[in-house]
Known about the structure:
Layout: E1 9-13, E2 23-30, E3 36-38, E4 42-51, E5 62-71, E6 74-85, E7 95-103, E8 109-119, E9 127-137, E10 145-154, E11 157-164, E12 168-176, E13 181-189, E14 197-200, E15 207-215, E16 218-226
Parallel strand pairs: 3-9
Antiparallel strand pairs: 1-9, 2-4, 4-7, 5-6, 5-8, 8-9, 10-11, 11-14, 12-13, 12-15, 15-16
Amino acid sequence: MKKFTFIFVLLMLQIGSLIAQDLGATKFISPLPNANVVVYQPNNWTLRVKNFGTANVPVGDTIMVYVFFYSGGAWVNPQAVGGSILTSPFNTNDSMQLTTSINFTIGAGLRAVGFAYIWLGHVPGTVKVFGANFNFVTSAGIAEITNIDRIYYANGELNVAMRFNHDNDARLIVSNLNGQQLWNNNISNKANDNSPLSISLGDLPKGIYIVNLISSGSNIAKKFIVQ
């Protein structure tokens, strides 16, 4: 399958049959772009969503989640995959995270997937589609990651001990809560070898940081705190 060259595409798409008020995703929280996604089983997708419109979404309104696929230079095949009933107002320029469980019944391969959030019950608007590449795989081909066993930061060095069930390549990402990536590299691990990986990060400001370990359909996230 031809590899798409774009990552993180933000497009404006008019869909006359859908009702919207300028709600759009701005960031993939999980899974991260280019990660493996297992088909024919539920996967949790968490995105950051922003109200770009001029009106507030009141308590009790429903925000529907639509998924699209990129084909022939356009987002196609919109499918409703979930929804969320608001328990607090979602006002203009506000952002929040929404999680939706999706079971993709499609063939394996590299695909560009886009998401749009549709505000039901209000005037038509512009649907903002936000997408990225993901590699869809079958469960038979997965080499599972057991866990991130421990994380320790001191004197500018981050030590991460990981445990794999099989010899495996993975990607390790260290980021702050603003989404800024401090370290992003491919790594190789041997089965049942949890020798720590040492990463030089320098003196980090006080705060909470996230370590993501991505491989073969898994995305494990652990946090560490610098005090």
